[in-house]
Write a structure and sequence with these properties.
Radius of gyration: 23 Å
Number of helices: 8
Structural class: alpha/beta
Order of helices and strands: HHHHEEEHEHEHEEH
Bound molecules: calcium ion
Strand order of the largest sheet: 5-4-3-6-7
């Protein structure tokens, strides 16, 4: 089988060709949506007041502890940092720490300003969802295949895997710091994400190289990339990102050249691929179709 992945030598050549090409326009207004001051007092007063009043009824050991939790408005039986009264006000489940099942506890969602009853609403900026338990089994790298998950380290140094976002429409952008057209795409990315994020859309930047072409997208570079373009979605590097690109290359979906983007549907099937900048309109048009499926 012929692997049409662009060889590293070519990447280095491209680096030479693009070195010094540093024009970057305004860095895309990083509005991270405020709201962080929400449910402040969080976890500390958690669960302590639960069964404490049990003592007065003469210790009959009748184990009826379960029911008084729900009646005590200041109790936090599910340990998510929200009292029963707070959960009632928010419409969350006082017996379930993660009401909407997005992997982020109710108390954290309340504190960060995301919707604890909407699985497509999660804080971002390092607090990612985790739907990996319900991710489908991988098939391969052909169009319409369920893509094998891959992982990388995010801008906070934490390992993040693609299948954490299973159930959402994903745009994965393979980019590098030295690539001018990648900058143009990155300038539009945060706004694209913000426009659809609570409908179940996420953008993931899978960085294959840094500004200087060292061959790796390390922690310092990822932080700089995020700062440059004001990004609050996952920006990944290292891990097995290049394996995914190689896999896509074996099927011909990737023919070399970046930015290279794949749009993945809610079942993690590869829907379409896009190379180069200026593809935003067609990508968002297709995204809307996939979000409505
Ligand atoms: Ca609670
Ligand atoms: Ca809860
Ligand atoms: Ca949640
Ligand atoms: Ca949520």
């Amino acid at each position: 089988m012929s692997i049409r992945l662009i060889p590293l030598v070519s990447l280095s050549l491209a680096l030479v060709l693009s070195a010094g090409c540093t024009e970057k326009e305004g860095d895309g207004a990083a509005e991270d949506g405020g709201g962080d001051d929400g449910g402040d007092d969080g976890g500390d007063d958690g669960g302590d007041d639960g069964g404490d009043d049990g003592g007065d009824d003469g210790g009959g050991g009748d184990g009826g502890g379960g029911d008084d939790g729900g009646e005590d408005g200041s109790a936090d039986p599910d340990g998510d940092g929200l009292t029963n009264d707070e959960e009632a006000a928010l419409g969350t489940d006082s017996g379930n720490a993660d009401t909407d099942g997005d992997g982020v506890d109710d108390g954290v969602e309340a504190a960060e300003g995301s919707d604890a009853t909407n699985p497509f609403s999660w804080p971002g900026d390092g607090i990612w969802p985790d739907f990996s338990d319900s991710a489908p089994a991988a098939e391969g790298y052909e169009r319409n295949d369920i893509i094998p998950s891959f992982s990388g380290d995010d801008q906070f140094g934490e390992t993040v895997s693609l299948d954490q976002f299973s159930g959402q429409v994903m745009l994965v952008d393979f980019s590098a710091g030295w690539c001018g057209p990648c900058h143009m795409v990155a300038e539009e990315a945060e706004e694209m994400w913000e426009s659809r994020r609570e409908d179940g859309f996420v953008i993931i930047h899978a960085m294959i190289d840094d500004w200087s072409g060292s061959g790796s997208a390390g922690q310092t570079f990822r932080e700089e990339w995020v700062a440059e373009f004001g990004l609050t979605f996952p920006v990944l590097g290292e891990g097995d990102i290049t394996d995914a690109l190689t896999g896509l290359g074996t099927t011909g979906l990737y023919e070399g050249g970046i930015p290279f983007m794949i749009l993945i549907d809610k079942e993690m099937r590869i829907d379409s691929a896009y190379t180069g900048s200026g593809r935003e309109d067609s990508i968002m048009g297709k995204t809307d179709i996939l979000l409505n499926e």
